[in-house]
Structures are given as structure tokens and as C-alpha cells.
Amino acid sequence: MATRSMQDWLDAYGVSHQNPTNKAIHWICVPTIYFCVVGFLYSIPLPDAPPFVRPHMLATLAVALVGIFYIRLSLPIAIGMILWSLFCLAVCRYLDAHAGLPLWAICTILFVAAWIGQFYGHKVEGKKPSFLDDLQFLMIGPAWLLSFVYKRLGIAY
User: Fold this and answer.
1) Per-residue pLDDT of the chain (157 residues; tens, 9 = 90+)
2) Quick check: helix, strand or coil at residue 85?
3) Domain ranges of the chain
4) Cβ neighbour number for residue 68 with a 10 Å cutoff
């Protein structure tokens, strides 16, 4: 089976993301969902791990694996996604230390709200979410948004 290029993935993702309302919803909900997944992983306790790897070890490992996924498709997209992931880790660290609610609770509220938004957007679009055909599209959504930023900035990917 031939490997898809980043552009092939982005084009396939874009097929079910043409409606302006759905696109606008994705600009809010996709980064929120990504952040929440990082936050959930950050929140998993690792009581037997050395203190320097708690609590962020699983989230950091996931970010590294995400980086590998993107590197094999596009180095510029990988760099942008790794930077976004590091920002998410920093926000998780801040919220974990200073928020009035546990990080997992904040992420649960945001995650549910963002998925409601996503499914509403696809109802407006009239097309099912891409990830129902291939789970890898869950990783392509954030890259799809980043591709628009790169186009605007004139960065090739």
C-alpha cells in the first residue's frame, strides 16, 4: 500500500470540511480537543515513577510519538505540531499547579464541549467526520489547520 503524502491527507480531510461554519468550529474545537488529550495524559498519575517524570511522563511520551507521526509526513508540519504540543504541555503544567479544578476535570469539560461542537459542525456540513473512515484523521485535523497558517505565512510544508 502506498504511503499518502501530507498533501494527500490534507486534501482528503478537506473534502468533509468545506462549510464555513464547520471550518470556523474546527478552528476552536480541534486545538481544544488536542489540548485535552495532552491534558488527560498529563493527569494520569505515575506513583512508582521517579519524581522528575511525574506527572508529565505519559503526555511527554505521547508528544514524542506524535512528533514521529508528523515527521514521516512533513518536517515543517512536525515542527509546528511539536511547538503546539510543547505549548499544551506548558499550559497543562500551569493549570495543574494553579487551577481551582483538577486538570482532568477541566479537560473533561472542554473535551465534551469541543466534541459537541465538532459533531454540530459536521451536521451543518452534512458530512460525517473523516475519522469515522480512518482514525489517522484524528491526527490530520490539527495539521490541516496548521497548513492554513503556513499558507498564510508562506511556509512550504
Assistant:
1) 458 899 999 999 998 899 999 999 999 999 999 999 999 999 998 777 777 666 678 898 899 999 999 999 999 999 999 999 999 999 999 999 999 999 999 999 999 999 999 999 999 999 887 887 778 889 999 999 999 999 999 999 9
2) helix
3) 28-46+53-148
4) 9
pTM to 2 decimal places? 0.90
Q: Within 13 Å, how many C-alpha atoms sit on residue 89's CB side?
A: 17
C-alpha pair distances (Å), 44 with each of 57, 58, 62, 75, 97: 9, 7, 12, 30, 15
Q: Which helix (H) or strand (E) holds 105?
A: helix 103-125
Locate 54 and state its grid cell: 511525574
Which residue type is seen at 155?
Answer: I
